[in-house]
Amino acid sequence: MAQTFAEQLKTSLNEALTRTTFASDLPAGFSAEIEQVQNRQFGDYQSNAAMILAKHLKRNPREVAAEISEVFEGGDLCGRPEIAGPGFVNFRLSTKALTERFGELLDDSERLGVDKTASPRTIVLDFSAPNVAKPMHVGHIRSTILGDGLGRIAKFLGHRVISDNHIGDWGTQFGMILWGWKNLLDQAALESDPIPELLRVYREVNARTKEDESLLEICKAELVALQGGDAENLAIWERCVALSKTGLQKIYDLLDVSFDHWYGESYYNDRLAPLVDNLISTGIAEVSEGAVCVFFRDNEKLADKPAIIRKSDGGFLYATTDLATIDFRIEEFKADAIWYVVGTPQQLHFEQIFAIVKRRGQNADLRHIAFGSILGKDRKMLKTRSGDTVQLADVLAESVVRARAIIEEKNPELPEEEKREIAEIIGIGSVKYAELSQFRMTDYIFDWDTMLSLKGNTAPYLINAYVRTRAIFRKLGSPFEAGGTITLTADAENELILKLAQFAEIVPTVLEDFRPNALASYLYEVATTYHKFWEACPVLREEGDVRYTRLALCELTGRVLRCGLGLLGIRTTEKM
Ligand code: ARG
Fold first, then answer.
1. CB 3.0–4.6 Å: which of 87, 116, 548, 557 could bond 158 by disulfide?
2. How many A from CA of 419 to the centre of ligand 1?
3. Ligand 1 nearest atom to the CA of residue 168, by list position
4. CA distance 165 to 127
């Protein structure tokens, strides 16, 4: 695919700079940047290069801009750039350029102009990672949705993505679960729906230990027996993990999320002792008050925060497992990068781990992709009415029920089977979109009415926009047929095709700072721009090239919405 408009303009602009009178005075390595313009009154793209250069050259920015405009050669792409405001250089694409790109995009039905990266990497994506038999908290909801979206986008851009669900299957919670399993378990409940039953048992034991300290000791003994290889406890543990995985898998199926691997924490058990020995012998870790620690004495931020990797009682920690996991991922998967989609409370943990990895001379690119909280309408941590942690499965179920009500109202005639399918698409899509349309660091308020609204930046609005692009072909009685002549005749068409062409500019930027919300905002703009086009430009009433062009715009809008939502893990439906 040809370069994007932004790339082409950038190349031409930088070439133009070499023809200015100040070409020899440019700062070393200077490269002018191009930006999309939101308000098209002033052009389609702009550059602030003249303002930056004017400062450097001690000249008037508008004069510098004028000189750049003078020597700029836009060819077929655009005419003479205009100078605006304090010294912006503004570019307006020619109808010819838009028409050509339109044709290219129509032919590129899979990628829609998005090139694969020239430098593909092997990325291990560590996300979701709930703890077995413990409540999956809201943090896991965010991690699951965000991680899945980022993985889809990275794959689409040509990276090799290996997803690994690093479940907490070896934590101290098993002390309580083992005792609860032996004393409180309701077998029938376990068989019909394991996760809630395991959770009930865990909560019950947890509550009892608060009142009865001796029980805590008994639970600890169960844990020690498990870690020591006690056959009965190991068998219970295995069942517990297996049941949990089955329960989790159901949720992932509903979410359309999948993992290449589920190497849980327990997978690394045998690797922990040798790893700690290695860290001691290489001088990275040292024994301190009976425990083994890594100190970061020359790191201002971590100077008083050593990482403990073996407790004085010989037990290993979360950090030890993560270090062993990194070794494994580098050796086994040849990981160039590891992305951890884990909430901000674990920031210190990852800073410590990453510092140790650096000291060991391992050069994988490690990223902690942190995120904020989900709040209730009261702006406090999201809780159920009874004060418990909100469960992902419950959220999804309720969302589907609420989506169903919307469909009943909007389209009561649809057959039952379709209603059910659409409710699921919209219900699940809404929960995902509420997450992905926010910048990940923002704490966002979980509000059913907002996220299921047919208006505003929501999944139902975007899916509905997609449905509208499809409805026209149903009315026409046949699918889109390529091969006609594109003739752009209205500004609303130019605006829409420009927007659609920018898909290729937006998608790669998502990975720069892990912001799927940039893609979400873009899709919302596509939908609103389409709406404007729809109001301004009749389609089926027209004939010939104009009609063909407008049908093609509907088709292409549909493809971009569908592909873009797909990259966020959101499905579309033909009707709603
Ligand atoms: N199980 C952990 C938790 O629930 C998250 C694990 C994240 N991944 C990792 N490699 N540490 O908090």
1. 116
2. 37
3. 1
4. 6
Chain segment 273-312, per-residue pLDDT in tens: 999 999 999 999 999 999 999 999 999 999 999 999 999 9
Question: For ligand 1, atom 4, which residue shows the shortest CA distance?
Answer: 130
Tell me the CB-side half-sphere exposure of residue 141, using CA atoms within 13 A.
25
- Per-residue pLDDT band for 341 (boundaries 50, 70, 90) equals very high
End-to-end CA separation in angstroms for the chain = 34
Per the structure block, which two tokens stand in for 122? Answer: 């092997």
136 Cβ below 6 A of ligand 1 = no
Is the CB–ligand 1 distance for residue 469 below 6 Å?
no
Q: Grade residue 426 by pLDDT with cuts at 50, 70 and 90.
A: very high
CB atoms within 10 A of CB 45: 25
Name 43's Cβ contacts closer than 8 Å, sequence gap at least 6.
37, 81, 82, 84, 90, 91, 92
Q: In which element (H, E) is residue 7 found? A: helix 5-17
Question: 3-class DSSP state for residue 124?
Answer: strand
- Tell me: pLDDT of 135 over 70: no
Query: Looking at the DSSP assignment, which residues form a beta bridge with residue 126?
Result: 164, 340
Q: Is the CB of 166 under 6 A from ligand 1?
A: yes
Of all protein residues, the one whose alpha carbon is nearest to atom 5 of ligand 1 is 129
Q: What is the DSSP string of 219-234?
A: HHHHHHHHHTT-HHHH
Residue 362's Cβ-count burial label (10 Å; 0-12, 13-18, 19+) is middle
Q: Check: CB of residue 247 under 8 Å from CB of residue 195.
A: yes
Residue 140 CA to residue 150 CA, distance in Å, equals 15
Write the pLDDT tens digit of every residue in 190-242.
988 888 899 899 999 999 999 999 999 999 999 999 988 999 999 999 999 99
Rounded CA gap, 382 and 389, in Å?
7
Q: Is the CB of 129 under 6 A from ligand 1?
A: yes
Q: b vs e for 559-576, b when ≥16 Cβ sit within 10 Å of the residue's Cβ?
A: bbbbbbbebbbbbbbeeb
pLDDT (average), residues 107-127:
97
Of 346, 351, 356, 366, which is best to mutate to test ligand 1, by the most ligand atoms within 8 angstroms of its C-beta? Answer: 346
Rounded to two decimals, the pTM is 0.95
**For residues 371 and 444, what is the distance between their CA atoms, to the nearest angstrom?**
10
- 132 close to ligand 1 (CB < 6 Angstrom): no
CA pair distance 174, 317, nearest whole angstrom: 15
Say yes or no: CB of residue 340 within 6 Å of ligand 1.
Answer: yes
What is the position in ligand 1's atom list of the atom closest to the CA of 171? Answer: 1
Residue 143 CA to ligand 1 centre (angstroms) = 10
Which parts of 414-550 are beta strand (E)? 444-445
